[in-house]
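Provenance

Sequences were taken from public entries as deposited. Structures were produced by running a predictor on each sequence independently, with no templates supplied. The record for ABC transporter domain-containing protein from Lomentospora prolificans is shown for reference.
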Amino acid sequence: MMAAISGLSLHRSALQSVIHALLYFSPAADIGVITNLFSRDSTLIDNELPMAITNLALDVDKALELLDDSQKPTYVLAMVQRCLLFSLHRSDTSDFTGASLVALMRFGDILNFIIRWWTQLETSIGAVTRLKALSDKVLSERFKDETEPVQPEWPAQSKIEIMGVSASYQSFNMANQFHEELSQEKPPHLVLENLSVSIAPGEKAAVCGRSGSGKSSLILLLLRMLDPLPSCAKGIIIDGVGLHSVNRADVRDRIIAMSQDPVFLPGRISLKRQFDPLDSSTPEECYAVLQLVELGNMASNVADMETPLRLESLSGGQRQLFNLPHMVLRGRVRSRRRNGGSKSGALLLLDEVTASISMDHQIERIMQRVIKVVIVERVRVVESGSPRALAMDDSSHFGQLWKA
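Predicted structure for ABC transporter domain-containing protein:
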Protein backbone atom coordinates (compact mmCIF):
# COMPACT_ATOMS: atom_id res chain seq x y z
CA MET A 1 0.00 0.00 0.00
CA MET A 2 2.82 2.37 0.93
CA ALA A 3 4.64 1.57 -2.33
CA ALA A 4 1.50 2.28 -4.37
CA ILE A 5 0.98 5.64 -2.65
CA SER A 6 4.65 6.60 -3.13
CA GLY A 7 4.58 5.63 -6.80
CA LEU A 8 1.38 7.59 -7.37
CA SER A 9 2.85 10.64 -5.65
CA LEU A 10 6.05 10.52 -7.74
CA HIS A 11 4.07 10.03 -10.95
CA ARG A 12 1.73 12.94 -10.16
CA SER A 13 4.61 15.25 -9.26
CA ALA A 14 6.53 14.42 -12.45
CA LEU A 15 3.40 14.80 -14.59
CA GLN A 16 2.65 18.23 -13.09
CA SER A 17 6.25 19.29 -13.78
CA VAL A 18 5.96 18.33 -17.45
CA ILE A 19 2.52 19.94 -17.87
CA HIS A 20 3.59 23.23 -16.27
CA ALA A 21 7.12 23.32 -17.71
CA LEU A 22 8.41 26.46 -19.35
CA LEU A 23 8.32 26.86 -23.11
CA TYR A 24 11.97 25.92 -23.65
CA PHE A 25 11.43 22.44 -22.14
CA SER A 26 9.31 21.01 -24.98
CA PRO A 27 11.79 21.35 -27.88
CA ALA A 28 14.79 20.52 -25.67
CA ALA A 29 13.39 17.41 -23.97
CA ASP A 30 13.99 13.93 -25.41
CA ILE A 31 10.56 12.38 -25.93
CA GLY A 32 12.07 8.89 -25.53
CA VAL A 33 13.48 9.74 -22.11
CA ILE A 34 10.19 11.27 -20.96
CA THR A 35 8.24 8.23 -22.19
CA ASN A 36 10.64 5.88 -20.39
CA LEU A 37 10.21 7.81 -17.14
CA PHE A 38 6.45 7.40 -17.22
CA SER A 39 6.50 3.77 -18.39
CA ARG A 40 9.48 1.62 -17.42
CA ASP A 41 10.57 3.66 -14.40
CA SER A 42 7.03 3.89 -13.05
CA THR A 43 6.69 0.11 -13.43
CA LEU A 44 9.92 -0.43 -11.51
CA ILE A 45 8.69 1.75 -8.66
CA ASP A 46 5.27 0.11 -8.48
CA ASN A 47 6.25 -3.55 -8.97
CA GLU A 48 9.96 -4.23 -8.57
CA LEU A 49 10.96 -1.85 -5.79
CA PRO A 50 8.55 -3.19 -3.09
CA MET A 51 9.65 -6.78 -3.77
CA ALA A 52 13.33 -5.87 -3.67
CA ILE A 53 12.94 -4.03 -0.37
CA THR A 54 10.91 -6.89 1.12
CA ASN A 55 13.48 -9.53 0.16
CA LEU A 56 16.40 -7.52 1.52
CA ALA A 57 14.80 -5.91 4.54
CA LEU A 58 16.35 -6.68 7.92
CA ASP A 59 14.76 -6.41 11.30
CA VAL A 60 15.86 -3.16 12.92
CA ASP A 61 16.56 -4.69 16.33
CA LYS A 62 18.60 -7.48 14.78
CA ALA A 63 20.57 -4.99 12.72
CA LEU A 64 21.39 -3.00 15.87
CA GLU A 65 22.57 -6.14 17.64
CA LEU A 66 24.81 -7.01 14.71
CA LEU A 67 26.21 -3.50 14.78
CA ASP A 68 27.03 -3.85 18.47
CA ASP A 69 28.65 -7.23 17.90
CA SER A 70 30.82 -5.83 15.11
CA GLN A 71 32.36 -3.39 17.60
CA LYS A 72 33.62 -6.06 19.97
CA PRO A 73 37.36 -6.63 20.25
CA THR A 74 39.05 -8.65 17.54
CA TYR A 75 40.07 -11.06 20.25
CA VAL A 76 36.54 -12.47 20.32
CA LEU A 77 36.70 -13.05 16.56
CA ALA A 78 40.01 -14.86 16.88
CA MET A 79 38.66 -17.05 19.67
CA VAL A 80 35.63 -17.99 17.57
CA GLN A 81 37.87 -18.90 14.65
CA ARG A 82 39.99 -21.12 16.88
CA CYS A 83 36.89 -22.75 18.31
CA LEU A 84 35.56 -23.53 14.83
CA LEU A 85 38.93 -24.89 13.74
CA PHE A 86 39.05 -27.16 16.80
CA SER A 87 35.53 -28.43 16.12
CA LEU A 88 36.35 -29.23 12.51
CA HIS A 89 39.41 -31.23 13.53
CA ARG A 90 37.33 -33.28 15.96
CA SER A 91 34.50 -33.99 13.49
CA ASP A 92 35.99 -35.67 10.45
CA THR A 93 33.25 -38.19 9.74
CA SER A 94 31.86 -38.67 6.24
CA ASP A 95 28.41 -37.48 7.35
CA PHE A 96 29.74 -34.19 8.60
CA THR A 97 31.84 -33.71 5.48
CA GLY A 98 28.82 -34.36 3.23
CA ALA A 99 26.67 -31.92 5.18
CA SER A 100 29.42 -29.31 4.87
CA LEU A 101 29.62 -29.77 1.10
CA VAL A 102 25.84 -29.48 0.73
CA ALA A 103 25.85 -26.30 2.81
CA LEU A 104 28.71 -24.96 0.70
CA MET A 105 26.80 -25.65 -2.53
CA ARG A 106 23.73 -23.94 -1.11
CA PHE A 107 25.81 -20.91 -0.15
CA GLY A 108 26.29 -20.07 -3.84
CA ASP A 109 22.53 -19.96 -4.43
CA ILE A 110 22.03 -17.76 -1.38
CA LEU A 111 24.77 -15.38 -2.52
CA ASN A 112 23.26 -15.24 -6.02
CA PHE A 113 19.84 -14.45 -4.51
CA ILE A 114 21.28 -11.60 -2.45
CA ILE A 115 23.21 -10.10 -5.38
CA ARG A 116 20.22 -10.35 -7.74
CA TRP A 117 17.81 -8.59 -5.41
CA TRP A 118 20.40 -6.02 -4.36
CA THR A 119 20.91 -5.15 -8.04
CA GLN A 120 17.14 -4.92 -8.53
CA LEU A 121 16.91 -2.63 -5.52
CA GLU A 122 19.58 -0.31 -6.93
CA THR A 123 17.85 -0.25 -10.34
CA SER A 124 14.50 0.58 -8.77
CA ILE A 125 16.00 3.28 -6.57
CA GLY A 126 17.53 4.75 -9.74
CA ALA A 127 14.03 5.02 -11.22
CA VAL A 128 12.93 6.94 -8.13
CA THR A 129 15.92 9.25 -8.50
CA ARG A 130 15.16 9.99 -12.15
CA LEU A 131 11.49 10.77 -11.54
CA LYS A 132 12.40 12.93 -8.54
CA ALA A 133 15.00 14.78 -10.61
CA LEU A 134 12.38 15.50 -13.28
CA SER A 135 10.10 17.02 -10.64
CA ASP A 136 12.87 19.09 -9.04
CA LYS A 137 14.86 20.33 -12.03
CA VAL A 138 12.22 21.16 -14.64
CA LEU A 139 11.35 24.83 -14.26
CA SER A 140 7.69 25.53 -13.63
CA GLU A 141 5.52 28.31 -15.02
CA ARG A 142 3.92 28.81 -11.62
CA PHE A 143 5.50 31.87 -10.02
CA LYS A 144 4.49 33.19 -6.62
CA ASP A 145 4.00 36.81 -7.73
CA GLU A 146 1.24 35.97 -10.23
CA THR A 147 -1.61 36.44 -7.79
CA GLU A 148 -3.33 39.69 -8.82
CA PRO A 149 -7.07 39.04 -9.19
CA VAL A 150 -8.73 40.26 -12.38
CA GLN A 151 -12.34 41.11 -13.07
CA PRO A 152 -14.51 38.39 -14.68
CA GLU A 153 -14.94 40.54 -17.80
CA TRP A 154 -11.18 41.17 -18.27
CA PRO A 155 -10.11 41.96 -20.95
CA ALA A 156 -13.38 43.67 -21.90
CA GLN A 157 -11.84 46.52 -23.94
CA SER A 158 -8.74 44.62 -25.12
CA LYS A 159 -6.52 47.69 -25.04
CA ILE A 160 -2.90 46.55 -25.40
CA GLU A 161 0.12 48.64 -24.44
CA ILE A 162 3.62 47.24 -24.93
CA MET A 163 6.36 49.62 -23.81
CA GLY A 164 10.03 48.92 -24.54
CA VAL A 165 9.84 45.15 -24.10
CA SER A 166 12.69 42.81 -24.98
CA ALA A 167 12.54 39.02 -24.75
CA SER A 168 14.82 36.04 -25.17
CA TYR A 169 14.36 32.28 -24.98
CA GLN A 170 17.67 32.07 -23.06
CA SER A 171 16.73 34.25 -20.09
CA PHE A 172 16.01 31.50 -17.54
CA ASN A 173 18.40 30.14 -14.95
CA MET A 174 18.24 26.90 -12.98
CA ALA A 175 16.92 28.66 -9.86
CA ASN A 176 13.48 28.95 -11.43
CA GLN A 177 13.89 32.69 -11.80
CA PHE A 178 15.15 35.12 -14.39
CA HIS A 179 18.80 36.11 -14.47
CA GLU A 180 19.16 39.21 -12.34
CA GLU A 181 21.69 40.60 -14.77
CA LEU A 182 22.80 39.32 -18.14
CA SER A 183 26.44 38.91 -19.04
CA GLN A 184 27.81 41.71 -21.19
CA GLU A 185 30.31 39.33 -22.80
CA LYS A 186 27.64 36.85 -23.90
CA PRO A 187 24.37 38.77 -24.33
CA PRO A 188 21.25 36.67 -24.93
CA HIS A 189 19.88 36.20 -28.40
CA LEU A 190 16.88 38.53 -28.44
CA VAL A 191 13.76 37.49 -30.32
CA LEU A 192 12.13 40.86 -29.51
CA GLU A 193 14.08 44.04 -28.81
CA ASN A 194 12.73 47.27 -27.34
CA LEU A 195 9.25 46.52 -28.68
CA SER A 196 6.70 49.33 -28.29
CA VAL A 197 3.18 48.90 -29.66
CA SER A 198 -0.19 50.37 -28.70
CA ILE A 199 -3.45 48.81 -29.92
CA ALA A 200 -6.69 50.64 -29.12
CA PRO A 201 -9.93 48.89 -28.06
CA GLY A 202 -11.71 47.35 -31.03
CA GLU A 203 -8.75 47.94 -33.32
CA LYS A 204 -7.82 45.18 -35.78
CA ALA A 205 -4.04 45.12 -36.11
CA ALA A 206 -2.04 43.03 -38.57
CA VAL A 207 1.57 42.24 -37.61
CA CYS A 208 3.67 41.76 -40.74
CA GLY A 209 7.26 40.79 -41.28
CA ARG A 210 9.57 38.22 -42.76
CA SER A 211 10.18 34.78 -41.23
CA GLY A 212 12.12 35.07 -37.98
CA SER A 213 11.24 38.73 -37.45
CA GLY A 214 9.38 38.04 -34.17
CA LYS A 215 5.69 37.80 -35.14
CA SER A 216 5.01 34.48 -33.41
CA SER A 217 7.18 35.51 -30.46
CA LEU A 218 4.90 38.52 -29.96
CA ILE A 219 1.90 36.19 -29.67
CA LEU A 220 3.79 33.97 -27.22
CA LEU A 221 4.60 37.09 -25.22
CA LEU A 222 0.92 38.05 -24.93
CA LEU A 223 0.00 34.48 -23.94
CA ARG A 224 2.78 34.46 -21.32
CA MET A 225 4.48 31.49 -22.91
CA LEU A 226 7.49 33.77 -23.34
CA ASP A 227 8.49 36.26 -20.64
CA PRO A 228 10.17 39.65 -21.09
CA LEU A 229 13.62 40.33 -19.71
CA PRO A 230 13.66 41.38 -16.01
CA SER A 231 14.38 45.01 -16.86
CA CYS A 232 11.10 45.32 -18.79
CA ALA A 233 8.95 42.68 -17.09
CA LYS A 234 6.20 45.22 -16.31
CA GLY A 235 6.06 46.64 -19.82
CA ILE A 236 2.91 44.82 -21.01
CA ILE A 237 -0.46 46.21 -19.91
CA ILE A 238 -3.87 44.98 -21.07
CA ASP A 239 -6.90 47.02 -20.01
CA GLY A 240 -4.88 48.68 -17.26
CA VAL A 241 -3.69 45.39 -15.73
CA GLY A 242 -0.01 44.45 -15.79
CA LEU A 243 0.27 41.12 -17.56
CA HIS A 244 3.22 40.08 -15.37
CA SER A 245 1.00 39.86 -12.27
CA VAL A 246 -1.84 37.78 -13.78
CA ASN A 247 -1.84 34.02 -13.43
CA ARG A 248 -0.76 32.39 -16.69
CA ALA A 249 -3.70 29.99 -16.72
CA ASP A 250 -6.10 32.94 -16.42
CA VAL A 251 -4.34 34.77 -19.26
CA ARG A 252 -4.71 31.80 -21.63
CA ASP A 253 -8.29 31.25 -20.57
CA ARG A 254 -9.30 34.89 -21.17
CA ILE A 255 -7.34 35.47 -24.41
CA ILE A 256 -8.56 33.48 -27.42
CA ALA A 257 -5.70 32.35 -29.66
CA MET A 258 -5.64 30.46 -32.93
CA SER A 259 -2.39 28.81 -34.00
CA GLN A 260 -1.21 28.26 -37.55
CA ASP A 261 -1.09 24.47 -36.99
CA PRO A 262 -4.39 22.69 -36.21
CA VAL A 263 -4.53 20.27 -33.27
CA PHE A 264 -6.66 17.13 -33.45
CA LEU A 265 -7.41 14.67 -30.67
CA PRO A 266 -6.12 11.17 -31.50
CA GLY A 267 -8.42 8.19 -31.98
CA ARG A 268 -12.01 7.91 -33.12
CA ILE A 269 -13.24 11.18 -31.62
CA SER A 270 -16.58 12.68 -32.57
CA LEU A 271 -16.78 15.81 -34.70
CA LYS A 272 -18.19 17.82 -31.78
CA ARG A 273 -15.52 16.73 -29.32
CA GLN A 274 -12.73 17.57 -31.77
CA PHE A 275 -13.37 21.32 -31.62
CA ASP A 276 -15.14 21.36 -28.25
CA PRO A 277 -12.96 19.06 -26.10
CA LEU A 278 -14.21 20.60 -22.85
CA ASP A 279 -17.85 19.85 -23.78
CA SER A 280 -18.86 23.43 -22.98
CA SER A 281 -21.50 23.77 -25.71
CA THR A 282 -24.45 21.86 -27.13
CA PRO A 283 -24.45 19.89 -30.43
CA GLU A 284 -26.84 22.50 -31.84
CA GLU A 285 -24.37 25.31 -31.09
CA CYS A 286 -21.52 23.34 -32.63
CA TYR A 287 -23.52 22.63 -35.77
CA ALA A 288 -24.44 26.31 -36.12
CA VAL A 289 -20.78 27.32 -35.83
CA LEU A 290 -19.80 24.80 -38.52
CA GLN A 291 -22.29 26.43 -40.86
CA LEU A 292 -20.93 29.86 -39.94
CA VAL A 293 -17.32 29.02 -40.91
CA GLU A 294 -18.40 27.34 -44.16
CA LEU A 295 -17.64 23.78 -43.01
CA GLY A 296 -21.26 22.68 -43.17
CA ASN A 297 -20.43 19.90 -45.63
CA MET A 298 -18.80 17.99 -42.77
CA ALA A 299 -22.16 17.46 -41.05
CA SER A 300 -25.54 17.35 -42.77
CA ASN A 301 -27.50 17.65 -39.50
CA VAL A 302 -27.05 17.94 -35.74
CA ALA A 303 -26.93 14.16 -35.27
CA ASP A 304 -23.81 13.97 -37.46
CA MET A 305 -21.90 15.95 -34.83
CA GLU A 306 -21.52 12.74 -32.81
CA THR A 307 -20.00 10.73 -35.67
CA PRO A 308 -16.21 10.11 -35.61
CA LEU A 309 -14.11 12.50 -37.66
CA ARG A 310 -11.93 10.98 -40.41
CA LEU A 311 -8.81 13.15 -40.50
CA GLU A 312 -7.52 11.61 -43.73
CA SER A 313 -10.53 13.05 -45.57
CA LEU A 314 -9.61 16.67 -44.72
CA SER A 315 -7.58 18.87 -47.04
CA GLY A 316 -4.89 21.23 -45.78
CA GLY A 317 -7.24 24.21 -45.98
CA GLN A 318 -10.02 22.35 -44.18
CA ARG A 319 -7.61 21.34 -41.42
CA GLN A 320 -6.68 24.96 -40.81
CA LEU A 321 -10.28 26.13 -41.02
CA PHE A 322 -11.06 23.57 -38.34
CA ASN A 323 -9.42 25.88 -35.80
CA LEU A 324 -12.14 28.47 -36.40
CA PRO A 325 -15.09 26.61 -34.78
CA HIS A 326 -13.07 26.08 -31.62
CA MET A 327 -12.20 29.78 -31.47
CA VAL A 328 -15.78 30.94 -32.16
CA LEU A 329 -17.20 28.55 -29.55
CA ARG A 330 -14.72 29.77 -26.95
CA GLY A 331 -15.81 33.34 -27.59
CA ARG A 332 -19.50 32.49 -27.29
CA VAL A 333 -19.05 30.41 -24.15
CA ARG A 334 -16.98 33.17 -22.58
CA SER A 335 -19.64 35.78 -23.38
CA ARG A 336 -22.40 33.56 -22.03
CA ARG A 337 -20.47 32.92 -18.85
CA ARG A 338 -19.88 36.62 -18.23
CA ASN A 339 -23.09 38.37 -19.14
CA GLY A 340 -25.73 35.87 -20.12
CA GLY A 341 -24.98 35.68 -23.81
CA SER A 342 -24.79 39.31 -24.96
CA LYS A 343 -21.96 40.35 -27.20
CA SER A 344 -18.83 41.55 -25.48
CA GLY A 345 -15.25 42.38 -26.32
CA ALA A 346 -12.61 39.72 -26.58
CA LEU A 347 -8.92 39.68 -27.41
CA LEU A 348 -8.20 37.43 -30.39
CA LEU A 349 -4.69 36.39 -31.44
CA LEU A 350 -4.45 34.78 -34.87
CA ASP A 351 -1.10 33.33 -35.93
CA GLU A 352 -0.85 33.01 -39.74
CA VAL A 353 -4.33 31.54 -39.95
CA THR A 354 -4.42 31.81 -43.75
CA ALA A 355 -1.13 30.00 -44.42
CA SER A 356 -2.86 26.97 -46.01
CA ILE A 357 -5.80 28.84 -47.53
CA SER A 358 -5.91 30.61 -50.87
CA MET A 359 -6.74 34.22 -49.97
CA ASP A 360 -5.92 36.12 -53.15
CA HIS A 361 -9.57 37.02 -53.76
CA GLN A 362 -9.98 38.29 -50.17
CA ILE A 363 -6.91 40.54 -49.90
CA GLU A 364 -8.94 43.68 -50.59
CA ARG A 365 -11.51 42.70 -47.96
CA ILE A 366 -8.77 42.21 -45.39
CA MET A 367 -7.27 45.60 -46.23
CA GLN A 368 -10.64 47.24 -45.61
CA ARG A 369 -11.12 45.56 -42.22
CA VAL A 370 -7.63 46.01 -40.78
CA ILE A 371 -7.26 49.36 -39.04
CA LYS A 372 -3.56 49.24 -38.19
CA VAL A 373 -0.60 47.34 -39.56
CA VAL A 374 2.56 46.79 -37.50
CA ILE A 375 5.77 45.92 -39.36
CA VAL A 376 8.35 43.87 -37.46
CA GLU A 377 11.85 43.48 -38.88
CA ARG A 378 14.94 42.11 -37.16
CA VAL A 379 13.01 41.67 -33.89
CA ARG A 380 12.02 45.35 -33.79
CA VAL A 381 8.95 47.37 -34.76
CA VAL A 382 10.06 49.53 -37.66
CA GLU A 383 6.74 51.15 -38.57
CA SER A 384 3.00 51.12 -37.91
CA GLY A 385 -0.01 52.87 -39.33
CA SER A 386 -2.89 52.60 -41.77
CA PRO A 387 -2.40 49.70 -44.22
CA ARG A 388 -3.74 51.69 -47.19
CA ALA A 389 -1.49 54.66 -46.52
CA LEU A 390 1.58 52.48 -46.06
CA ALA A 391 0.77 50.38 -49.14
CA MET A 392 0.75 53.53 -51.30
CA ASP A 393 4.12 54.66 -49.91
CA ASP A 394 6.84 52.98 -51.97
CA SER A 395 9.48 53.84 -49.37
CA SER A 396 7.66 52.13 -46.48
CA HIS A 397 8.44 48.59 -45.39
CA PHE A 398 4.80 47.57 -45.78
CA GLY A 399 4.69 49.04 -49.27
CA GLN A 400 7.68 46.93 -50.27
CA LEU A 401 6.09 43.80 -48.76
CA TRP A 402 2.79 44.58 -50.49
CA LYS A 403 4.39 44.81 -53.91
CA ALA A 404 6.77 41.87 -53.43
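The chain has a mean pLDDT of 75.
Residues 2-137 form one domain.
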